[in-house]
C-alpha cells in the first residue's frame, strides 16, 4: 500500500513536471513571438524617408509573404504530400517552397508570354488557399485555432532560431540604411534590372540594348523578385535594401530546418543557425544575387531530404532544385556538384532512394533548361549581353582567379579582421576553427559509428572538402572564382562548428558546472572573435563605388532625394543607374533614349537637347564631372576623340545655361542640374 502511494505520488510529480515543462515552452514561444514582432516592426520603420509610405511597405511585405506561401502551399497540395508537419513548420516551409520555386515560375510565365505582374503572381498564389477555404468552411475555425497553440508549444530551439534571424535582420537593416545610397558597384547595376522589371513586367532585354548587368544571360531571379515587389511601392532603393535583409535573415531560419531534417537533432540545428548568423562570410547587407542563392540552398536541400525519406515530396524537391539553378551562375554549378555528392553518399546507405533522387535531379535540370537553352542558343548579338555557343569557345579555365593567386593559410581562417570586403568578409575565428577541427577529429576517432552510420556527416565533410579545394583552386588546372567560395563556406562551416560545440557539451555532460563554464567560454570566444568583427564590417560606412570621380559630383546627385519619386531626370554623362538608385526615373530600356546617348559626343544644339527631353517628358537635366570619363569611354566604344567630345559637351552646357528653356536648380563644382521648362 505504501509502495502504491509512493508510485502514485511519483506519478503526480511526473505530471506536475510535465505541466511545468509545457508552461516553460509556452512562455518561450510566446515571448519569442513577441520579440520577433517588435524587431520586425522596428525594421519596417527604420528607413525614415516619407516614401514608400507605411501602408506601401506593409502591402509589399504582405505580398511577398503571401506570394511565397501561396505558391508553396499550392505545390504541396498538388503533390499530395502525405507527411504531416507541425503547424508552424508547415507554414514556414510552405513559404520556403514558394521562395525556392519562384525562379521556375517566372521563367515558365515568360516562356508562355505572360507578363511578370504582381497581380498575376498573386492570382497564382491565391488559388490553393482559396480552394482550401472554399472546401473547408466548416473546419476553418479549427484550423485557425491550431496557430496560437503552435506558437505556444513550439520547439524552443525553433523559436530561438527565429529570434536569431530577427536580430540579424534588424542589424542588417540598420547597416543598410545608414548609407543613403547604394554601396560599391554591383548594387547600382542591379537597380537598372529591378526598375526595368517593375515597369516593363519582363526580364527579357530589348533586342540590342543592355539594361544593367544582371538580366539575361545572367539568371534574372533576384532582380525579378525585387522588381515584382517594387511594383507595389514607390522606392526601388527601399525595396532592394529592405528585402535583401529579409532574404539574409531567412537563411538562418531555413538553415535550422535543413539541419533538423538531415540530422534529426534540433539542438544541433539551433547552434548551426546561430553559428551561421555570426559567420563573417555569411552574406552581407549589400545588394547581390548571391544572397538569394545561399539562402535558397538550405530550403532546397530540406525538400530534397524530405523527398529522400518520403516520395510524395519529390515534385516539391525537383521544383526547388530547378529554382536553385536559376539564380546565380557560379552557384548553379556548385549546387549541381553538391547535389551529386549528396546522391552518391546516400545511395550507398539507401539504394532505394537512388532512383528517386536521380529523377528529382533530372527533373530539376529540365525545368531550368526553360531558361538556359534559349539563352545559350540565342542568335542575338553580343551587345545584348546574351550568351551564345560561339562565346563558349573563349572559356578560360582559370576564370575569375586573377588577383586571387594565393593559398589561404590557417591564419586567414583564424584571424577575422575588423575590416575587409563588404561582399565577402573573410575568416571564421579561432574558437570557430577549433570547434570545426574538434568535430572532424572526433568523427575520425570513431569512423564506423560517427561517419559511416551517419551519412549526413559524410555529406557535410565532402561538401566542405570540395569548397575548401575550390578556395585554393588557382593552383589547379581548373579554377573558377576561388575567393567567391568564402561566401559558400558558411553552408558547411556552421554545421561542423555546431557539431563541435555539441560534442564538447556531450563530453562534459557528467560534470554540469564544468560543462556550462566551458560552453560560456566557447560562446564568448565566438562572439568576440567572430561576431564582433562581423558587426564592425557590416556597420562601417562604405564608399558608393568607383563610378563617382569626385565628392562634389556625388553630393550633387544626393540632391535627387529632394525630388518626388519617379520624377524624370536625364543625366547627360552618367549611366542611368546613377539616377534610378535615388528613386527618380530614367529609361535605359528605351531605344530613343539609348540612341540619343550614342550621339552625346557629337556637336549638338540646345534646341535638339530640349526637343529630346520634352519628347520623353524629362523634368530635370544633369551635367557633371563624370563627362570626362564618358568621353574617354566613347573613344573606346565609338572611336570618338575625347578632347573633341569634351569641347562639344562644354559648348552645349554653356548654351544650356543661357537658354530660357532651362532654369538652374542645383549646382556645385562637380555637378549642375537644370529644371526643364
SSE arrangement:
Elements: H1 2-45, H2 54-79, H3 87-111, H4 118-135, H5 140-145, H6 147-152, H7 156-177, H8 186-200, H9 221-230, H10 236-263, H11 266-278, H12 290-309, H13 314-324, H14 329-349, H15 352-376, H16 410-414, H17 430-445, H18 447-452, H19 455-471, H20 490-507, H21 512-538, H22 551-558, E1 569-571, H23 577-580, H24 591-598, H25 606-615, E2 620-624, H26 627-638, H27 642-658, E3 662-668, E4 671-676
Parallel strand pairs: 1-2
Antiparallel strand pairs: 2-4, 3-4
> What characteristic shape results from the CA principal axes?
globular
Strand ordering within the main sheet:
1-2-4-3
Number of domains: 2
Biggest β-sheet, characterized?
4 strands, mixed
Beta-strand percentage? under 5%
Quote the distance from N terminus to C terminus: 102 Å
Rg from Cα? 27 Å
Percent range for helical residues? Answer: 55-70%
Q: Average pLDDT value?
A: 88
Low-confidence stretches: 1-22, 381-396
The number of helical elements comes to 27
- Structural class determined from secondary elements: mainly alpha
Instruction: Tell me the number of strands.
Output: 4
Amino acid at each position: 500500500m505504501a509502495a502504491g502511494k509512493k508510485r502514485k505520488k511519483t506519478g503526480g510529480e511526473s505530471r506536475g513536471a510535465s505541466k511545468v515543462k509545457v508552461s516553460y515552452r509556452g512562455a518561450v514561444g510566446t515571448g519569442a513571438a513577441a520579440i520577433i514582432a517588435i524587431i520586425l516592426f522596428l525594421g519596417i520603420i527604420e528607413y525614415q524617408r516619407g516614401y514608400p509610405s507605411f501602408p506601401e511597405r506593409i502591402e509589399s511585405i504582405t505580398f511577398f509573404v503571401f506570394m511565397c506561401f501561396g505558391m508553396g502551399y499550392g505545390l504541396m497540395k498538388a503533390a499530395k504530400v502525405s507527411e504531416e508537419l507541425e503547424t508552424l513548420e508547415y507554414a514556414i516551409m510552405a513559404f520556403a517552397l514558394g521562395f525556392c520555386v519562384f525562379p521556375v515560375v517566372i521563367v515558365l510565365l515568360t516562356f508562355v508570354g505572360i507578363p511578370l505582374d504582381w497581380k498575376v503572381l498573386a492570382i497564382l498564389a491565391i488559388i490553393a488557399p482559396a480552394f482550401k477555404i472554399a472546401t473547408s468552411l466548416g473546419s476553418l475555425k479549427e484550423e485557425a485555432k491550431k496557430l496560437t497553440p503552435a506558437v505556444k508549444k513550439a520547439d524552443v530551439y525553433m523559436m530561438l532560431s527565429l529570434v536569431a534571424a530577427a536580430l540579424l535582420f534588424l542589424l542588417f537593416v540598420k547597416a543598410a540604411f545608414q548609407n543613403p545610397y547604394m554601396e560599391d558597384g554591383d548594387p547600382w547595376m542591379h537597380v537598372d534590372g529591378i526598375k526595368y522589371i517593375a515597369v516593363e513586367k519582363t526580364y527579357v532585354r530589348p533586342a540590342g540594348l543592355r539594361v544593367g548587368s544582371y538580366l539575361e544571360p545572367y539568371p534574372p531571379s533576384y532582380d525579378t523578385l525585387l522588381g515584382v515587389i517594387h511594383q507595389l511601392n514607390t522606392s526601388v532603393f527601399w525595396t532592394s535594401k529592405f528585402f535583401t535583409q529579409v532574404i539574409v535573415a531567412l537563411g538562418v531560419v531555413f538553415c535550422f530546418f535543413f539541419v533538423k531534417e538531415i540530422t534529426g537533432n534540433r539542438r544541433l540545428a539551433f547552434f548551426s543557425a546561430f553559428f551561421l548568423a555570426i559567420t563573417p562570410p555569411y552574406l552581407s547587407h549589400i545588394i547581390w544575387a548571391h544572397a538569394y542563392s545561399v539562402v535558397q540552398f538550405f530550403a532546397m536541400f530540406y525538400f530534397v531530404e524530405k523527398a529522400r525519406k518520403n516520395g510524395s515530396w519529390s515534385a516539391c524537391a525537383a521544383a526547388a532544385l530547378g529554382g536553385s539553378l536559376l539564380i546565380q551562375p557560379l552557384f548553379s554549378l556548385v549546387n549541381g556538384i553538391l547535389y551529386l555528392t549528396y546522391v552518391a553518399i546516400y545511395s550507398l546507405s539507401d539504394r532505394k532512394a537512388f532512383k528517386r533522387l536521380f529523377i528529382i535531379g533530372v527533373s530539376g535540370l529540365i525545368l531550368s533548361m526553360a531558361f538556359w537553352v534559349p539563352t545559350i542558343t540565342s542568335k542575338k548579338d553580343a551587345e545584348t549581353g546574351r550568351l551564345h555557343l560561339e562565346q563558349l569557345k573563349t572559356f578560360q579555365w582559370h576564370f575569375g582567379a586573377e588577383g586571387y593567386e594565393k593559398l589561404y593559410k590557417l591564419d586567414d581562417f583564424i584571424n577575422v579582421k575588423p575590416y575587409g570586403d563588404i561582399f565577402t568578409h573573410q575568416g571564421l575565428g579561432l574558437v570557430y576553427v577549433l570547434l570545426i577541427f574538434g568535430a572532424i577529429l572526433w568523427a575520425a576517432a570513431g569512423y564506423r559509428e560517427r561517419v559511416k552510420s551517419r551519412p549526413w556527416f559524410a555529406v557535410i565533410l565532402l561538401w566542405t572538402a570540395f569548397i575548401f579545394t575550390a578556395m585554393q583552386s588557382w593552383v589547379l588546372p581548373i579554377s573558377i572564382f576561388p575567393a567567391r567560395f568564402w561566401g559558400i563556406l558558411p553552408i558547411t562551416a556552421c554545421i561542423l562548428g555546431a557539431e563541435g560545440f555539441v560534442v564538447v557539451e556531450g563530453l562534459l555532460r557528467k560534470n554540469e558546472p564544468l560543462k556550462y563554464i566551458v560552453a560560456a567560454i566557447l560562446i564568448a570566444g565566438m562572439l568576440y572573435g567572430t561576431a564582433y568583427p562581423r558587426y564592425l564590417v557590416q556597420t562601417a560606412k562604405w564608399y558608393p563605388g568607383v563610378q563617382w570621380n569626385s565628392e562634389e559630383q556625388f553630393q550633387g546627385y544626393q540632391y535627387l532625394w529632394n525630388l518626388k519619386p519617379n520624377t524624370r531626370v536625364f543625366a547627360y554623362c552618367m549611366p542611368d543607374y546613377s539616377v534610378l538608385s535615388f528613386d527618380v526615373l530614367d529609361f535605359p530600356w528605351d531605344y530613343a533614349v539609348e540612341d540619343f546617348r550614342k550621339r552625346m559626343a557629337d556637336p549638338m544644339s540646345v534646341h535638339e537637347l530640349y526637343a529630346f527631353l520634352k519628347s520623353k517628358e524629362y523634368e530635370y537635366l544633369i551635367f557633371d564631372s563624370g563627362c570626362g570619363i564618358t568621353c574617354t569611354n566613347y573613344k573606346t566604344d565609338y572611336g570618338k576623340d575625347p578632347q573633341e567630345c569634351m569641347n562639344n559637351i562644354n559648348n552645349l552646357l554653356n548654351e544650356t545655361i543661357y537658354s530660357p528653356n532651362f532654369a538652374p536648380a542645383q549646382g556645385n563644382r562637380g555637378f549642375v542640374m537644370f529644371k526643364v521648362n
